[in-house]
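Re: export button greyed out
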Amino acid sequence: MGTTKKFKKIGVVTTGGDCPGLNAAIRAVVRTGIYHGMEVTGILQGYEGMIKGEFVRLGSHSVSNILQRGGTILKTARSEAFKTVEGRKKAYDNLVKEGIEALVVIGGDGSFKGIEQFSREFPITSVGVPKTIDNDIFGTDYAIGFDTALNTVIQVIDKIRDTADSHNRLFFVEVMGRDAGMIAIYSGIASGAEAVLIPETETKIEQIVKILDRGWERKKSSMIVIVAEGDVAGGAYEIALEVKARFNQYDTRVSVLGHMQRGGSPTCNDRVLASRLGVAAVQALIEGRTNEMVGVINNEISHTSYSDVVKGKKEFPYQLLKIAEILSL
Ligand code: F6P
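Workaround output, generated via the alternate export path:
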């Protein structure tokens, strides 16, 4: 941490996959910047826009009425060009040309890897804000987008439960999360799933069959197995086939939820989180912080260096697995 800094102009960018709450975070960055007498420039299309020089001036009014909207008004992208030194050099030159003295990067794991590398090569001041529905970023308990994705998932599973129950069916529901099982375990508990399969633990088909047999004996009229997309035993279709070969008591269906999990209006929790983190990011810049991600740990604002964010492994809440197991009897 250094002395208090005053910047004339700061930039804000959303990078990587979109998620609900990005607009709330952009709004918070813009309004906090203006509140402190700074100009704020939006960078379009993630790091791609930095490389191509796609900038837009963001006044206080330009972020009116976006707090409740999904997606990102700045657009986003996963940039291959930013992985090259030539791309990063172009990005740096454009930032200098545009007079952007400091950056707020609203991104996920890949974005922080990119900015960490960028800030080792070029004298750029920046602070990160964590967002991803996967909630797998080290240095924050929650990332923007996770809560909304969970609420979307459980609303859909509730609907699937209605139809499963009417037809006495077994459903395998695949949820996103890349190689993390956070969405799966939280939504599993919240929707009363019979089993939750995640990449963090080994999936044994015999174990699933045992749980389903128990449900059959108890005359359950429907059963739901949630499969995290990154489960090493395979996706929902593959696992459903394997299970069917050993347990065929119910008519079976598979539902892959896909990108609906990334859209929609952010929940109250995500709006508040995005607002807190957006404000904290600009305050961190003013405090002279750089190369750090702001986060929330135990409901307090935290600061974690990019190198720790990139190297660290977020702890999985294994205790939730036991809760899911007990409650699925
Ligand atoms: O990281 C967010 C996420 O939605 C993951 O859960 C998923 O694996 C991936 O992005 C999908 O990426 P794409 O939008 O490129 O298909």
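Residues 146-167 form the longest helix (22 residues). The button fix ships in the next patch.
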